[in-house]
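Troubleshooting log. The previous structure file for this entry was overwritten by mistake, so regenerating from the original sequence record. Sequence copied from the archived sheet and checked twice against the printout by T.R.
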Amino acid sequence: MRIRPAIFSPDNQPLRVKSAILGLAIAFGSLGFSNVYANSFDDPFGVNTHLPTHPGREAAQLADFYTIPAPKTVQKQQIDTRHEYSLAELTALALSNNPQTHSAWASLRAQAASVGISEAAWLPKLTLNASAQQSQSTTSTGFSIPTQRIFAPNLSLSWLLYDFGQREAGIAAAKAGLVAARFANDQTLQTVLANVATAYYQSLADRVLVDVDKQSVKTAQKALDAAQARYRSGQATISDLYQAKAALAQAQGTLATAEQTRLQNEGALASAVGLPVDTQLRLAPLQTRIDPNLDANVKSLLQQAIAQNPNLQNAQAQVAQARATLDQTERAGMPSISLGANQGLRFQQSLGRTQTNSIGLTLSVPLFTGFDQHYQSAQARAKLAEAEANRDTTYQSTELAVWQGYYAFRGAVVAVPSARVQVENASEALKAVQAQYKVGYATIQDLLTAQSTLATAEVTLAQNALNAYTALAKLGAAIGQLGTPMFSEHSLLDPTTAAVSEGATSSDHQPDLAPTSHLYVQKEQSQP
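Regenerated output below.
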C-alpha cells in the first residue's frame, strides 16, 4: 500500500507554499466580495447617484426644473390702456383676479367639506367584499387532490348608534372652523383691498411728485439762466454759476429718482390688482377733497371694530373650535355602541352554495389606552388656552390699529391747511427772490434756498394728502368695512372722483389739492 505524504509535512515544502498562496487568495477574494456586497446594500437603488459628493454644492439638476405656468389673471390685452381707472374699478379687478382671493375661496370650500365629513358619522357604512380562490394540493406520494375553486361575496354593515356625544362635538368643531374660514376669507378680501388702495394712493402721489420735480428742474434752469446772464454782464461771480449748475443737477437727479420710484410703485399696484407687474395702468389726476372732521368719534369706531372686524371674529371662532375639539377629545374615552350586520355567500366547486347571516350589537369600552387619552386631553386644553390668548392679542391689535388710523388721518388732515399756506408763501417768496436776483438785490444762495423751500412745501402737501387717504383706508380695514369707509358724507376714498356729495362742494373746511404745478387752488379764486 502506497502512503501519500501529508501536505504540511516537512517533506512536502512546495505543496505548503502553494496552499498558503491559495488560502491568501481566497481570504482576499472573500474580503473584496464582502465589500462589494456591503456597498451594494448601502444604496441598493442608487438614490445618491445624482447628489453632490461634498456639502456646499448645488444639488438641482437641469432635469429638475419645472415649467411654471403664469397665474390665471386678466390678460394685458384686456386692460384698456386709454381708460383712466378709478379705485373702484381696480378693486373690482383685484377681487376677481388676485390669487389671494382664489386661495381664500378654495380654503373656505375645503373647510365646508370638513363639515360634511363630520356629518357623515351619523350614517351607516356598507362594505362589499368578494374573494375568488383556486387551490390544489399534492401529497409526497404523488397523490393529487382535485382543484378547488371558491367564490365568496360578503356584504357587511356597521353603524355607530351611540357614542356619548363624540359626533356632536366633532360636528360643532367643524362648523366653528367653517365660521372661522368665512371670516378668514373676508379678512383676505380686506387685505387685498387695503393693498390695492395703498398702492393706488402711492401711485397717484408719485405722479404728483414727478410733476413737482419737473417744475423744480424748470425753476433751477431759470436760476441757471439768470446766473449766466449776470455772469456775462459781470454782475455775478463764477461761484454763482457753479452753484446754479449744481442745483440744476440735483433737481435733475431728484426727478430721475422720482421717475424710477413711480415705475416701482406702479408695478406694486399692478401686482396688488393681480396683473403682471409690467402692466401699464392709467390713473385719473389727483384731485382730493378731504373732510377734516369725521362724523364718528374714535370710541364709536372702536366699538364697530370690536363688533365686526373679521380678523377678530376669526380669532373668536377659533376659540369656539378649540373648545369643541376639547369636548370631543374628552368624550373619546366614553363607551360606544355599534350595530353590525353581515351577509355572505360561498360558492365552492362540488359543494354548492353556502349562505351566512349575522347581526349583533357591540359595546366598546376603552379601559386603558396607554395614557394616550390623557395627553390628548391635555393637548386640547392647551390649544384652547392658546386660542384664547391669540384672540386677546388680536383684540388689542385691532384696537391699536383703529386708534392709530384715526389719529393718523386727523393728523394728516390737520396738516393740510398749514402745508397749503407754506406752498402759497414759498411760491410768492420765490417770485420775489427771482426778481431781486435779476437786479442784484439777492444772492444766489437766497434764490436756491427759495427754490428748495417751495419744492419741500409742495412735497409736504402731496405727502399729507397721501397720508390722509392711506390712513383712511387702513382705518376702514381695521374697523372691518369692505370698500369705502363712509364715516362722513364728505369723505371720498377715491381721490380721482371730482364730484362730491351735494352740499359739500365749496365749503371752507374742504381744502382742494388740484393737479397743478403748485398743487393748490387758492380759495379766493372760487369766491366772487
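The first strand starts at residue 84 and ends at 85. Archived copy saved in two places this time.
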